[in-house]
Amino acid sequence: MQPTEVNAAGASSINVKVASEVSEALSLGRAVVALESTIISHGMPYPQNLQTAKEVEGIVKKNGAVPATIAILDGVPIVGLSGEELERLATLGPRAQKTARRDIAYVVARGGNGATTVSATMFLASMVGIHVFVTGGIGGVHRHGEYRILLVF
Asked: How far from 120 is each of 6, 92, 124, CA to CA, in Å?
């Protein structure tokens, strides 16, 4: 099966490539878990990043769901990286742009490579109907965050 492309409602200029395994699982109502990719490109060096990414995907599979690692390669948002695409992102490392939701259009328009943050992962996953995702962590302290922080568990 070939990957399918999806246009988001209200975002017709962004085509998203969805891996066939992910597309099939979604159409059958099976569990799919989106995985952010900044942890791969910016979180650790190669080859540990690739090994960790494969281990996390394996844990998702072991628990009965289909993993869908999300990134942008050559200007194309991809939901469900292939093994080759995962390795490419891992070897790119920090040369892949750390891509938040606000950066998606820029990375796509310039044909760039982007590793998705939590916000971009949530956005792209939601576009294709994935409602659960995993992250390596939510980090970053924003200016005056000590006055505005709200954590809900």
From this structure: 16, 19, 6
Contact between 5 and 17 under an 8 Å Cβ cutoff? The reply is yes
What is d(CA 41, CA 114) in angstroms, rounded to the nearest whole number? Answer: 9
H or E element in which residue 97 lies: strand 97-99
Give the residue carrying structure tokens 């060096």: 45
Closest C-alpha to 138, from 33, 14, 31, 39: 39
Structure pTM?
A: 0.85
Tally Cβ neighbours within 10 Å of residue 132: 12
CATH of the domain at 34: 3.40.1790.10
Please write the tens of the pLDDT for every residue from 13-38.
Answer: 689 999 999 999 999 999 999 999 99
> Residue 73 falls within a domain, yes or no?
yes
